[in-house]
Amino acid sequence: MTTRRWLVLIATLLAVALTARLGAWQLDRASHKLALQAAVDAEAARPPLRNADLGDAAVHRGVVLRGTWVTERTVWLDNRPMDSRAGFYVVTPLRLAGRADAVLVQRGWAPRDPTDRSRVPPLATPPGEVEITGRLAAAPSRLYELGQGAAGVIRQNLDPAAFAAESGLVLLPLTVVQTAPAGADDGLLRHWPAPDLGLHKHYGYAFQWFALCALIVGLYVWFQLLRPRLRRQPS
Q1: Does residue 64 contact residue 135 with C-beta atoms inside 8 Å?
Q2: Residues sharing a CB contact under 8 Å with residue 192, sequence separation 6 or more, in sequence order
Q3: Under a CB-based contact definition with an 8 Å cutoff, are residues 131 and 117 in contact?
Q4: Which locations, inside or outside the cell, does it occupy (predicted)?
Q5: Contact yes or no for 66/110 (Cβ under 8 A)
Q6: Is residue 145 a contact partner of residue 78, using CB atoms and an 8 Å limit?
Q7: Which of 12, 89, 117, 191 has its CA 20 to 30 A from that of 181?
C-alpha cells in the first residue's frame, strides 16, 4: 500500500471515529433529555400547590392560587406570537392571600393593534380576591433587545428581580403560567406551547452525524476498494 493510500485510510478512520462519536454524543444528550422530560411530566402530575405550599415550589408544578390582582402593575410583553398572530403576553402580579408576597402571572395572550403599536387592547381584570389555576415556570421568555429596555407598560422583556425593585413588590422567584380564566372570560388566549426540551433536535443531529459517517465509509469503499478493482478488470 502506498503512502497516499495509508494517509487516505488514516484520514477516513479519524473522520469515521469523529462522526460516530458525535452521533453517540447526541444520542446521550437525548437520553438525558428523556429523563428530564420524565421528571417534568412527573412534577406536572403531582397535586397542585396552594398558597401555603409555595415554599416547596418547582418548575412545571401545577398550582391553584388565591389572591388579588395588582392591576396597575400589568405589563404587556411585545412581539410574542400565538397561533401565528402578533401580540402581547399579559403579565400581572398576583398578591397572594394570606401571605406578604406576590407572584408574576403570565395571564395569556392579547392581539396587537396593527395600526398603533403603542395601543393595548382592553383587559377585563376582576376586582377582589380571585382563584387562578396554572403551572409554575421560570421568568417569561426573553427576546433579543438592545440596551436595558423600556420600563413602561409595553416592554420587550421582563426581569422579575428588576421588576420587584421597580414595583416595591416582594415577588416569588418563579412565575405562574395561567391556564384558565379567573372567573368570567377575560378574552385572553392561553394556547401555551408545551415545554420543549429539544429532544427531537438531538435525534436529528444524531441522524446527520451517523449519515455522514456512513457516507464517509461508502466513499472510501467505492474510491479505494471497488473502483480500482473495476478498473483492473479486462474489458
Answers
A1: no
A2: 177, 179
A3: no
A4: Cell membrane; Membrane
A5: no
A6: no
A7: 117
CA atoms within 13 A on the CB side of 151: 8
Q: Which residues contact 108 (CB under 8 A, 6 or more apart)?
A: 89, 90, 178, 186, 188, 189, 190
Per-residue cell: 223: 474510491
How sure is the predictor about 164, in pLDDT bands with cuts at 50, 70 and 90?
Answer: very high
- Would you list the DSSP string of 171-220? EEEEEEEE-S-SSS--S-B--PPPP---HHHHHHHHHHHHHHHHHHHHHH
Q: Which residues of 143-176 are buried (b: 16+ CB within 10 A; e: fewer)?
A: eeeeeeeeeeeebbbbebeebbeebebebbebbb
- Say what the pTM is: 0.76
Question: What is the three-class DSSP state of 128?
Answer: coil
In the Cβ-directed half-sphere of 141, how many Cα atoms lie within 13 Å?
A: 13
What span, in angstroms and rounded, lies between the C-alpha atoms of 73 and 108? Answer: 15
Grid cell listed for 88: 402581547
Pull the grid cell for residue 205.
443531529
107 Cβ neighbours under 8 A, 6+ residues apart: 90, 91, 92, 178, 186, 188
C-alpha cell at 231: 478498473
Which amino acid is present at 228?
A: P
pLDDT band at 147 (very low <50, low <70, confident <90, very high): low
What is the average per-residue pLDDT within 64-68?
96
Q: Where are the domains of the chain?
A: 3-40+198-232, 61-178
Distance CA 136, CA 177 (A): 6
